[in-house]
């Protein structure tokens, strides 16, 4: 039985004792049924969390809130689990909402601060994520929080440079099919051979190289992980970055020599 039930378990035992004394006690019987239902809902939610089925876990937790909406400590614990599930499931809007609800009631809830920080990162609010991580660090100085704060700071710095997600116009949790679809659309739109004016062609070539770089990083698991951790694997100062930019530098678009590529 999960921790959120400790208070209710005590009540559960008291109700059983009450029913032993008087099986027809209406108030005890009604409360017994309610607590039994709540225990079942929360245990099912925890099983779904353990299995990584966060959408279904959210549904169970919301049902538990409908069952118990007045016991403040229990409600807060359920909302904390909702905050976690929404973060794990990358349900960004609900994550920000539920985690904020928890923090309005308990401003030093470290788990809610960290979960909201991660959702703020997904939402590209890196300054907000830094603030939450700094608040958490002021409460407890853990390695996990230090690493999260460092990553958020690097992502903020990175966002002021080249952002591959923004280049392709996809969210940070986009899957490969979304990334490839966005790439194909933009690559067709900005292929330099479509332009005759030299200034337009030069601008399109620069845009096309950025699009190709974004696809290169975001469809490669290792490079994408590097980027998500705040490091640009195609930074010209790195060997990978130099190789990529050398490959595209001076590439003969147009001029009777077409640039051929595959739309994957």
Write up what this structure looks like.
With 264 residues, the chain is mainly α. The protein has helices spanning 6-21, 26-51, 54-67, 72-88, 92-105, 110-122, 126-139, 143-159, 164-168, 176-190, 198-218, 221-228, 239-248. 72% of the residues lie in helices and 0% in strands. Helix 4 packs antiparallel against helix 5 (92-105). It is elongated and about 80 Å long.
Q: Key terms for this structure?
A:
single chain; 264 residues; mainly alpha; disordered N terminus; disordered C terminus
Question: Could you write a compact summary of the structure shown?
Answer:
The protein is 72% helix and 0% strand.
Sheet with the most strands, sense and barrel status = none
Mean pLDDT: 82
Overall radius of gyration: 26 Å
Q: Figure out the total of helices.
A: 13
Structural class: mainly alpha
Number of strands: 0
* CA distance, first residue to last residue: 49 Å
Topology overview:
Elements: H1 6-21, H2 26-51, H3 54-67, H4 72-88, H5 92-105, H6 110-122, H7 126-139, H8 143-159, H9 164-168, H10 176-190, H11 198-218, H12 221-228, H13 239-248
Helix pairs in contact: 1-2, 2-3, 3-4, 4-5, 4-6, 5-6, 6-7, 6-8, 7-8, 10-11
